[in-house]
Each structure stands twice: as structure tokens, then as C-alpha cells.
Amino acid sequence: MRRRARGNAVLETALFIPVLLLLIVGIVQLGKVTYTYYTIKKILYAAARDLAVQQGINFCDPAEDPTAQAAMNFALNDPASGQPIIANLTALQVTTECTDPNNPGGAMVPCDTSNCGGLTVAARPDFLQVSIPSGYPIEVRLPFLNPIPITFNPTVTVPFEGVS
């Protein structure tokens, strides 16, 4: 009787190892995704806070403003090495939000930039919103499955405290 039961432990181990491997790799991939999302949110927040306290930023075209570009480069790149903190994350989008004067509830609307150009400048925004223009793609790799593509579209909104 004891002789027939010897192979059960080997069989149970052989069946359980793929499940255990999938569980361990899944936990590692979940950690990778969580860490990447957290790092992206911190990059966006650093850029937003740096822009929010600057003086004289051109919100008509923040992509051409050297102060805005310096703030975004500071957030995107490691100060010690100058290398990107996250690979393939090279561009951030800055939009402005103003309080709607027609809505007493304080709803936020995109700031009017129709007077931009020439000598006029955009109105002073109440909030700055920093995001990634087309999102940040990441692939989750699990054993026995095709890579699962995920696109992060985080956005950070901070109050504007500077002078435009």
C-alpha cells in the first residue's frame, strides 16, 4: 500500500510548479507596473509644481518657452547623469485651466488663448494641468501568455501661484 503512494508527491509538485511560477512572475510584473505608474505621476507632479511657481511663462505656447522647457527637462531627466528617468518618456503637455466666470459653482474650463499672438498674452490661469500627450505604453509579460499592452494616461493638476 505504501509503495503505490510514492509517486503522488512528485506528481503534485509537477502540477503545482507552473501555478507557483505564474503567481511569482505575476507579482513581480504587478510591482513593475505599479512602480512605473508611481514614477510617472511623480515626474508629472514635479514638472507641474516647478511650472506653477515660475514667473513670466508664456502659456500661449509653453513648448517654445525656455522656462517651461527647463522645468519639463528637469522633471524628465536625472540631474546627475542627464539621462531620462523613464525610457521613451520625452514629452509632456501643459494645459491651463481657469475658473468659469459664468458658473458660480467654480467649474474649471480651459483658459481662453484666443488673444495669443502679437503683444498680448494669455490670461493668468488658476490651475496647470500636466499630462503625457499620447499616454505611456507598457507591456506586462506573463508566462504562457502574450504580452498584455497597457497605456498609462496620468494627469496632474496643481494651482498656479506664479505670474504669467
Shape descriptor: elongated
Mean pLDDT: 85
- Helix residue percentage: 25-40%
User: Strand arrangement, largest sheet?
Assistant: 2-1-3-6
**Sheet bearing the most strands, described?**
4 strands, antiparallel
Rg estimate, integer Å: 25 Å
Order of helices and strands: HHEEEEEE
Name the features.
4-stranded antiparallel β-sheet; 164 residues; two-stranded antiparallel ribbon; alpha+beta; 6 strands; elongated; 2 helices
Task: Give a structural overview.
The chain has one domain. Helices cover 35% and strands 18% of the residues. It is built from 2 helices and 6 strands. The strands form 2 sheets. Strands 2-1-3-6 form a 4-stranded antiparallel beta sheet. 13% of the residues are buried. The model has no long low-confidence stretch (mean pLDDT 85).
Please give the structural blueprint.
Elements: H1 6-52, H2 66-76, E1 93-99, E2 108-110, E3 127-131, E4 136-140, E5 148-152, E6 155-159
Antiparallel strand pairs: 1-2, 1-3, 3-6, 4-5
Helix pairs in contact: 1-2
Outline:
With 164 residues, this protein is α+β, with helices and mostly antiparallel strands.
